[in-house]
Every structure is written in structure tokens, then in C-alpha cells.
Design goal:
With 232 residues, the chain is mostly helical. The chain contains nine helices and no strands. Helix content is 78%, strand content 0%.
Length: 232
């Protein structure tokens, strides 16, 4: 039974490597299908490894499935698809925020931000700086992009708030996963609104896939009170 629980993670890692190595040789249909499989595999692994515990687990699964919708939409390369993908990722970030904050509440412990309130102005300063940086380049998409930046960094701040309420590895993995997600989206914005980045897709997808993996794995191991980055 344990092998069945880790099988989705093994398939996820294998498909991620295949996707990053051979995406240039894939048709749009195959690329879309490949991207559409990855997040459901992570969601399934969370479901199996946490024994489908009620409460905050459903929010993490919802976030991963919303990421799947965003992955499929945003690869279509139209403005409508981009905004639709942005909306799907927004739903995912709200789900992550809800799941992380519920974890802190249910732990009965003080979250990181309660213990270190100075983290809030630091995050707000970073958020404002990113918004100001991209403001001259986003044109008519300024409002949706700014909303997305605020929610994205709020998700990362919620991940930070979780630190100290779960096993150390779980805390750090989820926060670093959120940072990797932020870096991935920053590169998307740079590539789309400022100038094309060399090897953009490879770096964007690597940081995105690594970030989602770290969040899913950190959450699962936190629920099981076990420190382990690899499947098993």
C-alpha cells in the first residue's frame, strides 16, 4: 500500500523531467496534456499521504487543481487565456492562504508573523516594489496584474506565517516552495511584459514545478509529522 501512495509522486517527478527536457519537441496538444497531468498527480499524492484528512487538506488539493487549470489555460498564448489562467492561479493562491492559515489556527501555536510582526512591512515593501517595477510595462493589464501580485505575495506571507507550527522541514519546504512560485511568476511577467528571457520556459517551469512539489510534499509530511523531501 505504501508504494501506491508514493507512485503519483514518482510519476510526477518523471513527467516533470521529461517535460523540461523535451518540451521544445512537443506539439501544443501534447504540451497541454502533459501540463494538465502534473498538478492532479500532486493532488492525488496529498490525498493518499494524508489519508484524506478533512479540514485544511481540501484547500491544498483545491489549490493544486486550480494550478492545473491555470497550467492548461496559460499555455494557449492568447490574452483571454492568459487572464483566465491568471484567475485560476488566483483561486489556487486563495486556497493555499486558507489552508495555511487553518493549519496555524488548528495548531494552537502562534504563527511566525504573530511572533515577528516586522515581517509584514517587509512583505508590503516587496509587494509595492514589484508593483512599481512592472507598472510602466503592463498597460491595460495593470489592475489584474497588480491584484495577482498582491495575492501571490500574500500566499507567500501565509506560508511564512506557518513556520513554527509544524515540523521544521515542513515549514521551510512550504515557504521555500512559495518563494519558488513567486520567482516563477516574476519570470513570466518579465518575459511577457518587458523582454523575452533566454530559456524562459525552462526556468519558469522548473521553479514552478519545484515550488508546487515543495508545497505539496511539505504539507503531506507535516500532516504525518515526518521530515522527508523524497517520496516514501
Amino acid at each position: 500500500m505504501q508504494y501506491l501512495k508514493i507512485l503519483p509522486l514518482i510519476i510526477y517527478l518523471a513527467l516533470s523531467v521529461f517535460h523540461l527536457c523535451f518540451y521544445m519537441h512537443q506539439s501544443l496538444g501534447w504540451l497541454t496534456m502533459n501540463r494538465g497531468i502534473l498538478m492532479p498527480l500532486l493532488a492525488l499524492s496529498v490525498y493518499l499521504e494524508t489519508n484524506a484528512k478533512p479540514g485544511h487538506t481540501i484547500w491544498i488539493i483545491l489549490a493544486l487543481l486550480a494550478g492545473c487549470a491555470g497550467d492548461v489555460l496559460i499555455v494557449q498564448h492568447t490574452e483571454y487565456a492568459f487572464l483566465s489562467g491568471l484567475s485560476a492561479f488566483l483561486i489556487g493562491h486563495f486556497a493555499y492562504i486558507t489552508g495555511f492559515l487553518r493549519e496555524v489556527h488548528q495548531s494552537g501555536k502562534q504563527g511566525f508573523i504573530q511572533r515577528h510582526p516586522a515581517a509584514v512591512p517587509v512583505y508590503l515593501l516587496v509587494t509595492s516594489g514589484v508593483m512599481l517595477f512592472f507598472a510602466p510595462y503592463t498597460g491595460i493589464m495593470k489592475v489584474p496584474v497588480f491584484i495577482y501580485i498582491f495575492v501571490l505575495l500574500s500566499m507567500s506571507m501565509a506560508a511564512l506565517h506557518r513556520i513554527g507550527t509544524k515540523p521544521a522541514w515542513s515549514d521551510v519546504a512550504i515557504w521555500l516552495g512559495s518563494i519558488s512560485f513567486v520567482v516563477s511568476d516574476f519570470m513570466i511577467a518579465w518575459d511577457k511584459f518587458i523582454r523575452p528571457l533566454p530559456y524562459a520556459y525552462t526556468f519558469i517551469m522548473f521553479t514552478y514545478l519545484a515550488g508546487q512539489y515543495a508545497i505539496a510534499r511539505g504539507f503531506s509530511t507535516g500532516c504525518r509529522q515526518k521530515n522527508s523531501f523524497l517520496p516514501g
